[in-house]
Amino acid sequence: xxxxxxxxxxxxxxxxxxxxxxxxxxxxxxxxxxxxxxxxxxxxxxxxxxxxxxxxxxxxxxxxxxxxxxxxxxxxxxxxxxxxxxxxxxxxxxxxxxxxxxxxxxxxxxxxxxxxxxxxxxxxxxxxxxxxxxxxxxxxxxxxxxxxxxxxxxxxxxxxxxxxxxxxxxxxxxxxxxxxxxxxxxxxxxxxxxxxxxxxxxxxxxxxxxxxxxxxxxxxxxxxxxxxxxxxxxxxxxxxxxxxxxxxxxxxxxxxxxxxxxxxxxxxxxxxxxxxxxxxxxxxxxxxxxxxxxxxxx
Length: 298
Prior knowledge:
Blueprint: E1 20-25, E2 28-33, H1 44-59, E3 65-70, H2 106-126, E4 132-136, E5 139-141, H3 143-149, E6 153-157, E7 161-163, H4 179-182, H5 185-194, E8 198-199, H6 200-205, E9 211-213, H7 218-230, H8 234-250, H9 253-275, H10 284-295
Parallel strand pairs: 2-3, 3-4, 4-6, 5-7, 6-9
Antiparallel strand pairs: 1-2, 7-8
């Protein structure tokens, strides 16, 4: 007797066939998140396209540095929890050694999916052997943090802000849980438990951001850094990156993420049991409205 379930039939409407753009210029690859009408909310279509773009840059021996940027006003509003292109129920050609999530019952469904598409892919991108630079403008919220945090450098515009407000859903932070490594413990608790916006200038004070520049200088600042990096030996850059990543892992980064992943999915399961919804009854509109109210904006 099987405990598998029939996949759900989802009504999905994609607004673009190119959720991620790729451009190579000399030794620099520019990868652009391209759902500006939805503030670059991350559906699976975008996530798998992003993985394709990163792999393309890795496979090209002419590329030495990768810049991750975003079209439109905001870097990323986080995971897609409310657009017509939300595709959580869709099956994809998986990149990691994970089974398909669409036939899994109850809590196993989301646990399986997010192990690949969030935690697993972010770890995969963190280990890219070439230096990566996140070029952040506007909002970098929840799932957007994960895309920025996997990069080796973050250059932010002076109007950028960072936020993980998912405690409002009863969920203790996004799946790629780097909060305690990006920020000092008490600041990480403030960031996570209050869920408030952290301006780029304050993030720079704690070392989460490398540089803050005017928005109209963001492209130039990222390009300048990328060109400097491209002037160094390829192997030296890879070895140097590995050395620092190993320090983080020796401090427990990977183990901490593994522990948090189970806490995260306990929260999803609790929400489902108590409210009938894995997100605790929240959706994109309610989260956005609450965030704007908290920030005192409209």
